[in-house]
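Fold it.
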Amino acid sequence: MQILLALALILISCLIIWKASDGFEVASEYLGRNMSEGVRGATINAIGSSMPELFTTIFFLLYLTDTDGFSGGIGTTAGSAIFNGMIIPAVVIFVVLLSGIAKSINVSKKVILRDGLFLIGAELILIFLISGTTLQWWHGFILMLTYGVYMTYMLMSMKKVDSNEEDEEDDDDNDDNSEVGVIKGLLTLNLEAVFIRNNKISSSNSWALLLFSMAVIGSACLLLVFSCEMIGTALGIHIMFISVVLASAATSVPDTIISMRDAKKGNYNDAIANALGSNIFDICFALGFPLFLYCIIYGPINMDPETLAHTSQLRILLLIFTILAFFIYFVGSKMGRSKAFMLIGIYLLFTSYIVGTSLEAEWAITITDYLQSVYEFIKGG
Protein backbone atom coordinates (compact mmCIF):
# COMPACT_ATOMS: atom_id res chain seq x y z
CA MET A 1 0.00 0.00 0.00
CA GLN A 2 2.82 2.38 0.86
CA ILE A 3 4.52 1.70 -2.49
CA LEU A 4 1.31 2.31 -4.44
CA LEU A 5 0.77 5.57 -2.58
CA ALA A 6 4.33 6.66 -3.31
CA LEU A 7 3.97 5.79 -7.00
CA ALA A 8 0.73 7.79 -7.13
CA LEU A 9 2.51 10.77 -5.56
CA ILE A 10 5.33 10.47 -8.11
CA LEU A 11 2.73 10.50 -10.89
CA ILE A 12 1.14 13.61 -9.38
CA SER A 13 4.59 15.22 -9.18
CA CYS A 14 5.17 14.48 -12.87
CA LEU A 15 1.81 16.02 -13.81
CA ILE A 16 2.51 19.17 -11.79
CA ILE A 17 6.00 19.51 -13.31
CA TRP A 18 4.55 18.93 -16.77
CA LYS A 19 1.82 21.59 -16.41
CA ALA A 20 4.13 24.14 -14.77
CA SER A 21 6.73 23.61 -17.48
CA ASP A 22 4.22 24.87 -20.07
CA GLY A 23 4.23 28.31 -18.51
CA PHE A 24 7.95 28.16 -17.99
CA GLU A 25 8.53 27.35 -21.67
CA VAL A 26 6.50 30.38 -22.78
CA ALA A 27 8.45 32.69 -20.47
CA SER A 28 11.87 31.28 -21.33
CA GLU A 29 11.17 31.47 -25.06
CA TYR A 30 10.27 35.15 -24.78
CA LEU A 31 13.21 36.03 -22.52
CA GLY A 32 15.64 34.18 -24.77
CA ARG A 33 14.21 35.55 -28.02
CA ASN A 34 17.39 37.50 -28.82
CA MET A 35 19.73 34.54 -28.36
CA SER A 36 21.03 32.72 -31.40
CA GLU A 37 19.85 29.20 -32.18
CA GLY A 38 21.78 26.60 -30.20
CA VAL A 39 22.74 29.12 -27.50
CA ARG A 40 19.22 29.64 -26.18
CA GLY A 41 18.70 25.88 -25.95
CA ALA A 42 21.98 25.36 -24.12
CA THR A 43 21.53 28.24 -21.67
CA ILE A 44 18.14 29.68 -20.71
CA ASN A 45 16.12 26.65 -21.86
CA ALA A 46 18.58 24.23 -20.27
CA ILE A 47 18.78 26.12 -16.97
CA GLY A 48 15.05 26.51 -16.66
CA SER A 49 14.16 22.97 -17.64
CA SER A 50 16.78 21.68 -15.16
CA MET A 51 15.21 23.46 -12.19
CA PRO A 52 13.55 20.17 -11.10
CA GLU A 53 16.97 18.51 -10.79
CA LEU A 54 18.28 21.46 -8.78
CA PHE A 55 15.29 21.53 -6.43
CA THR A 56 15.27 17.74 -6.06
CA THR A 57 18.97 17.63 -5.16
CA ILE A 58 18.52 20.45 -2.63
CA PHE A 59 15.56 18.70 -1.03
CA PHE A 60 17.35 15.34 -0.96
CA LEU A 61 20.21 16.92 0.98
CA LEU A 62 18.15 19.10 3.30
CA TYR A 63 15.41 16.50 3.88
CA LEU A 64 17.61 13.45 4.50
CA THR A 65 20.59 15.49 5.83
CA ASP A 66 23.10 12.67 5.42
CA THR A 67 25.08 10.78 2.80
CA ASP A 68 21.85 9.19 1.57
CA GLY A 69 20.71 12.68 0.67
CA PHE A 70 23.86 13.34 -1.33
CA SER A 71 23.64 9.96 -3.08
CA GLY A 72 20.01 10.74 -3.92
CA GLY A 73 21.18 14.01 -5.48
CA ILE A 74 23.92 12.24 -7.46
CA GLY A 75 21.42 9.62 -8.57
CA THR A 76 18.95 12.26 -9.75
CA THR A 77 21.50 14.36 -11.64
CA ALA A 78 23.34 11.38 -13.17
CA GLY A 79 20.14 9.55 -14.07
CA SER A 80 18.67 12.71 -15.53
CA ALA A 81 21.86 13.31 -17.52
CA ILE A 82 21.64 9.83 -19.07
CA PHE A 83 17.90 10.29 -19.72
CA ASN A 84 18.54 13.66 -21.36
CA GLY A 85 21.44 12.36 -23.42
CA MET A 86 19.65 9.24 -24.70
CA ILE A 87 15.87 9.58 -24.52
CA ILE A 88 15.40 13.26 -25.42
CA PRO A 89 17.39 13.14 -28.71
CA ALA A 90 15.56 9.89 -29.60
CA VAL A 91 12.21 11.53 -28.85
CA VAL A 92 13.21 14.56 -30.94
CA ILE A 93 14.06 12.31 -33.89
CA PHE A 94 10.77 10.39 -33.66
CA VAL A 95 8.74 13.60 -33.27
CA VAL A 96 10.27 14.94 -36.47
CA LEU A 97 9.80 11.65 -38.36
CA LEU A 98 6.25 10.88 -37.20
CA SER A 99 5.12 14.48 -37.73
CA GLY A 100 6.35 14.36 -41.31
CA ILE A 101 8.48 17.45 -40.76
CA ALA A 102 11.57 15.79 -42.23
CA LYS A 103 13.07 12.34 -42.85
CA SER A 104 16.01 13.07 -40.54
CA ILE A 105 17.45 15.97 -38.56
CA ASN A 106 20.65 17.90 -39.08
CA VAL A 107 22.39 19.24 -35.98
CA SER A 108 25.34 21.60 -36.19
CA LYS A 109 28.65 19.80 -35.59
CA LYS A 110 29.76 22.93 -33.78
CA VAL A 111 26.92 22.55 -31.25
CA ILE A 112 27.73 18.87 -30.69
CA LEU A 113 31.46 19.52 -30.29
CA ARG A 114 30.95 22.55 -28.05
CA ASP A 115 28.43 21.06 -25.64
CA GLY A 116 29.49 17.41 -25.94
CA LEU A 117 33.17 18.00 -25.17
CA PHE A 118 32.36 20.41 -22.35
CA LEU A 119 29.97 17.85 -20.87
CA ILE A 120 32.64 15.13 -20.97
CA GLY A 121 35.08 17.56 -19.35
CA ALA A 122 32.57 18.40 -16.60
CA GLU A 123 32.05 14.70 -15.86
CA LEU A 124 35.81 14.15 -15.58
CA ILE A 125 36.03 17.07 -13.15
CA LEU A 126 33.22 15.48 -11.11
CA ILE A 127 35.06 12.13 -11.00
CA PHE A 128 38.35 13.64 -9.86
CA LEU A 129 36.81 16.24 -7.54
CA ILE A 130 34.53 13.95 -5.55
CA SER A 131 36.89 11.07 -4.96
CA GLY A 132 37.60 11.26 -1.24
CA THR A 133 35.60 10.28 1.81
CA THR A 134 34.87 13.89 2.82
CA LEU A 135 33.04 16.51 0.75
CA GLN A 136 33.74 20.18 1.39
CA TRP A 137 32.03 23.42 0.37
CA TRP A 138 34.77 24.18 -2.12
CA HIS A 139 33.95 21.03 -4.06
CA GLY A 140 30.56 22.52 -4.81
CA PHE A 141 32.12 25.91 -5.51
CA ILE A 142 34.48 24.45 -8.14
CA LEU A 143 31.55 22.74 -9.86
CA MET A 144 29.62 26.03 -9.93
CA LEU A 145 32.71 27.84 -11.20
CA THR A 146 32.97 25.30 -14.02
CA TYR A 147 29.43 26.15 -15.06
CA GLY A 148 30.28 29.83 -14.86
CA VAL A 149 33.10 29.28 -17.35
CA TYR A 150 30.72 27.47 -19.71
CA MET A 151 28.08 30.23 -19.48
CA THR A 152 30.67 32.95 -20.02
CA TYR A 153 31.94 31.23 -23.15
CA MET A 154 28.40 30.71 -24.46
CA LEU A 155 27.37 34.33 -23.99
CA MET A 156 30.62 35.75 -25.38
CA SER A 157 30.47 33.56 -28.49
CA MET A 158 26.77 34.17 -29.12
CA LYS A 159 25.70 35.86 -32.32
CA LYS A 160 23.12 38.59 -31.94
CA VAL A 161 19.71 37.77 -33.36
CA ASP A 162 17.21 40.30 -34.59
CA SER A 163 13.80 39.54 -33.11
CA ASN A 164 11.05 41.57 -34.70
CA GLU A 165 8.36 38.93 -34.96
CA GLU A 166 8.07 37.61 -31.46
CA ASP A 167 4.84 39.41 -30.67
CA GLU A 168 2.96 37.93 -33.63
CA GLU A 169 3.61 34.36 -32.51
CA ASP A 170 2.86 35.17 -28.87
CA ASP A 171 -0.55 36.65 -29.77
CA ASP A 172 -1.56 33.45 -31.54
CA ASP A 173 -0.54 31.32 -28.57
CA ASN A 174 -2.40 33.45 -26.00
CA ASP A 175 -5.79 34.00 -27.70
CA ASP A 176 -7.79 32.40 -24.87
CA ASN A 177 -5.84 33.81 -21.93
CA SER A 178 -8.22 36.71 -21.30
CA GLU A 179 -11.11 34.26 -20.91
CA VAL A 180 -9.46 32.25 -18.13
CA GLY A 181 -9.86 33.55 -14.59
CA VAL A 182 -6.97 33.77 -12.17
CA ILE A 183 -8.44 31.21 -9.75
CA LYS A 184 -9.24 28.75 -12.52
CA GLY A 185 -5.80 29.27 -14.02
CA LEU A 186 -4.12 28.52 -10.69
CA LEU A 187 -6.27 25.44 -10.01
CA THR A 188 -5.60 23.99 -13.48
CA LEU A 189 -1.96 25.21 -13.45
CA ASN A 190 -2.63 27.21 -16.61
CA LEU A 191 -0.01 29.68 -15.41
CA GLU A 192 0.37 31.42 -18.75
CA ALA A 193 -3.25 32.55 -18.54
CA VAL A 194 -2.70 33.87 -14.99
CA PHE A 195 0.32 36.05 -15.72
CA ILE A 196 -0.09 37.01 -19.38
CA ARG A 197 -3.39 38.85 -19.68
CA ASN A 198 -4.98 40.31 -22.80
CA ASN A 199 -2.33 38.65 -25.00
CA LYS A 200 0.32 41.13 -23.87
CA ILE A 201 3.62 39.47 -23.03
CA SER A 202 6.52 41.52 -21.69
CA SER A 203 9.76 41.06 -19.81
CA SER A 204 8.08 41.82 -16.47
CA ASN A 205 5.22 39.32 -16.73
CA SER A 206 7.56 36.78 -18.35
CA TRP A 207 9.88 36.94 -15.34
CA ALA A 208 6.89 36.66 -12.99
CA LEU A 209 5.63 33.62 -14.92
CA LEU A 210 9.11 32.09 -14.95
CA LEU A 211 9.66 32.50 -11.20
CA PHE A 212 6.18 31.28 -10.23
CA SER A 213 6.51 28.27 -12.53
CA MET A 214 9.82 27.46 -10.83
CA ALA A 215 8.15 27.69 -7.41
CA VAL A 216 5.42 25.27 -8.48
CA ILE A 217 7.99 22.88 -9.94
CA GLY A 218 9.97 23.14 -6.69
CA SER A 219 6.96 22.11 -4.62
CA ALA A 220 6.43 19.12 -6.89
CA CYS A 221 10.08 18.15 -6.44
CA LEU A 222 9.68 18.16 -2.65
CA LEU A 223 6.78 15.75 -3.06
CA LEU A 224 8.94 13.68 -5.41
CA VAL A 225 11.77 13.39 -2.87
CA PHE A 226 9.33 12.36 -0.14
CA SER A 227 7.85 9.70 -2.46
CA CYS A 228 11.24 8.28 -3.45
CA GLU A 229 12.22 8.03 0.22
CA MET A 230 8.96 6.15 0.92
CA ILE A 231 9.68 3.61 -1.84
CA GLY A 232 13.30 3.15 -0.75
CA THR A 233 12.24 2.51 2.84
CA ALA A 234 9.43 0.13 1.86
CA LEU A 235 11.60 -1.95 -0.48
CA GLY A 236 14.81 -1.69 1.55
CA ILE A 237 16.64 -0.34 -1.52
CA HIS A 238 19.34 2.33 -1.40
CA ILE A 239 17.81 5.73 -2.18
CA MET A 240 20.30 6.29 -5.02
CA PHE A 241 18.80 3.43 -7.06
CA ILE A 242 15.31 4.88 -6.63
CA SER A 243 16.36 8.40 -7.55
CA VAL A 244 18.47 7.37 -10.55
CA VAL A 245 15.43 5.88 -12.29
CA LEU A 246 12.23 7.43 -10.93
CA ALA A 247 13.33 10.89 -9.77
CA SER A 248 15.58 11.45 -12.78
CA ALA A 249 12.84 10.59 -15.28
CA ALA A 250 10.30 12.78 -13.47
CA THR A 251 12.63 15.79 -13.32
CA SER A 252 13.45 15.44 -17.03
CA VAL A 253 9.85 16.19 -18.06
CA PRO A 254 10.51 19.92 -18.82
CA ASP A 255 13.65 19.11 -20.84
CA THR A 256 11.69 16.64 -22.95
CA ILE A 257 8.77 19.00 -23.54
CA ILE A 258 10.95 21.96 -24.53
CA SER A 259 13.08 19.85 -26.87
CA MET A 260 9.96 18.38 -28.52
CA ARG A 261 8.54 21.83 -29.15
CA ASP A 262 11.83 23.11 -30.52
CA ALA A 263 11.98 20.11 -32.84
CA LYS A 264 8.45 20.74 -34.14
CA LYS A 265 9.50 24.31 -34.97
CA GLY A 266 12.55 23.05 -36.82
CA ASN A 267 14.98 24.36 -34.18
CA TYR A 268 17.01 21.14 -34.09
CA ASN A 269 20.13 22.80 -32.68
CA ASP A 270 18.16 24.14 -29.72
CA ALA A 271 16.43 20.78 -29.21
CA ILE A 272 19.71 18.88 -28.89
CA ALA A 273 21.59 21.74 -27.19
CA ASN A 274 18.87 21.84 -24.50
CA ALA A 275 19.54 18.18 -23.65
CA LEU A 276 23.33 18.60 -23.56
CA GLY A 277 23.21 21.99 -21.84
CA SER A 278 20.82 20.61 -19.23
CA ASN A 279 23.32 17.86 -18.46
CA ILE A 280 26.11 20.40 -17.97
CA PHE A 281 23.85 22.40 -15.65
CA ASP A 282 22.82 19.25 -13.74
CA ILE A 283 26.38 18.09 -13.13
CA CYS A 284 27.96 21.47 -12.42
CA PHE A 285 25.26 23.58 -10.78
CA ALA A 286 22.32 21.34 -9.83
CA LEU A 287 24.81 19.21 -7.89
CA GLY A 288 27.41 21.87 -7.04
CA PHE A 289 25.10 24.49 -5.52
CA PRO A 290 23.25 22.12 -3.13
CA LEU A 291 26.61 20.63 -2.07
CA PHE A 292 28.00 24.11 -1.46
CA LEU A 293 24.87 25.20 0.43
CA TYR A 294 24.70 22.07 2.57
CA CYS A 295 28.36 22.22 3.62
CA ILE A 296 28.08 25.91 4.49
CA ILE A 297 25.06 25.20 6.74
CA TYR A 298 25.84 21.77 8.20
CA GLY A 299 29.57 21.30 7.59
CA PRO A 300 31.45 18.67 5.53
CA ILE A 301 29.74 15.49 4.36
CA ASN A 302 31.45 12.27 5.45
CA MET A 303 30.82 9.58 2.85
CA ASP A 304 30.40 6.01 4.04
CA PRO A 305 32.23 3.37 1.94
CA GLU A 306 29.05 1.88 0.42
CA THR A 307 27.69 5.25 -0.75
CA LEU A 308 31.11 6.29 -2.05
CA ALA A 309 31.37 3.07 -4.06
CA HIS A 310 27.85 3.41 -5.52
CA THR A 311 28.31 7.04 -6.54
CA SER A 312 31.79 6.38 -7.99
CA GLN A 313 30.50 3.57 -10.19
CA LEU A 314 27.55 5.67 -11.32
CA ARG A 315 29.84 8.54 -12.37
CA ILE A 316 32.01 6.17 -14.43
CA LEU A 317 28.92 4.71 -16.09
CA LEU A 318 27.69 8.23 -16.86
CA LEU A 319 31.03 9.10 -18.48
CA ILE A 320 31.07 5.92 -20.60
CA PHE A 321 27.51 6.45 -21.85
CA THR A 322 28.14 10.14 -22.52
CA ILE A 323 31.15 9.31 -24.70
CA LEU A 324 29.09 6.67 -26.56
CA ALA A 325 26.27 9.16 -27.13
CA PHE A 326 28.75 11.82 -28.29
CA PHE A 327 30.01 9.54 -31.06
CA ILE A 328 26.46 8.59 -32.05
CA TYR A 329 25.60 12.29 -32.40
CA PHE A 330 28.80 13.22 -34.18
CA VAL A 331 29.35 10.39 -36.65
CA GLY A 332 27.41 10.88 -39.88
CA SER A 333 25.79 13.99 -41.29
CA LYS A 334 22.25 13.27 -40.04
CA MET A 335 20.38 11.83 -37.07
CA GLY A 336 17.70 9.33 -38.06
CA ARG A 337 15.76 6.31 -36.85
CA SER A 338 18.80 4.04 -36.42
CA LYS A 339 20.52 6.50 -34.09
CA ALA A 340 17.31 6.93 -32.12
CA PHE A 341 17.06 3.17 -31.55
CA MET A 342 20.73 3.01 -30.51
CA LEU A 343 20.20 5.76 -27.93
CA ILE A 344 17.06 4.08 -26.55
CA GLY A 345 18.96 0.78 -26.37
CA ILE A 346 21.71 2.39 -24.30
CA TYR A 347 19.14 3.81 -21.86
CA LEU A 348 17.46 0.40 -21.52
CA LEU A 349 20.85 -1.14 -20.74
CA PHE A 350 21.42 1.53 -18.12
CA THR A 351 18.02 0.95 -16.51
CA SER A 352 18.54 -2.82 -16.53
CA TYR A 353 21.90 -2.40 -14.82
CA ILE A 354 20.43 -0.14 -12.11
CA VAL A 355 17.60 -2.60 -11.42
CA GLY A 356 20.04 -5.54 -11.43
CA THR A 357 22.38 -3.76 -9.04
CA SER A 358 19.57 -2.91 -6.63
CA LEU A 359 18.58 -6.60 -6.64
CA GLU A 360 22.23 -7.68 -6.32
CA ALA A 361 22.09 -9.77 -9.49
CA GLU A 362 25.33 -11.62 -10.24
CA TRP A 363 25.78 -10.15 -13.73
CA ALA A 364 25.24 -6.63 -12.36
CA ILE A 365 27.81 -7.21 -9.61
CA THR A 366 30.34 -8.23 -12.31
CA ILE A 367 29.73 -4.94 -14.15
CA THR A 368 29.94 -3.06 -10.86
CA ASP A 369 33.35 -4.54 -10.13
CA TYR A 370 34.53 -3.53 -13.60
CA LEU A 371 33.26 0.04 -13.13
CA GLN A 372 35.00 0.24 -9.76
CA SER A 373 38.29 -0.89 -11.35
CA VAL A 374 37.91 1.77 -14.03
CA TYR A 375 37.28 4.36 -11.35
CA GLU A 376 40.35 3.30 -9.40
CA PHE A 377 42.44 3.41 -12.60
CA ILE A 378 41.28 6.93 -13.51
CA LYS A 379 41.70 8.21 -9.97
CA GLY A 380 45.10 6.58 -9.63
CA GLY A 381 46.20 7.85 -13.02
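The chain has 18 helices and two strands.
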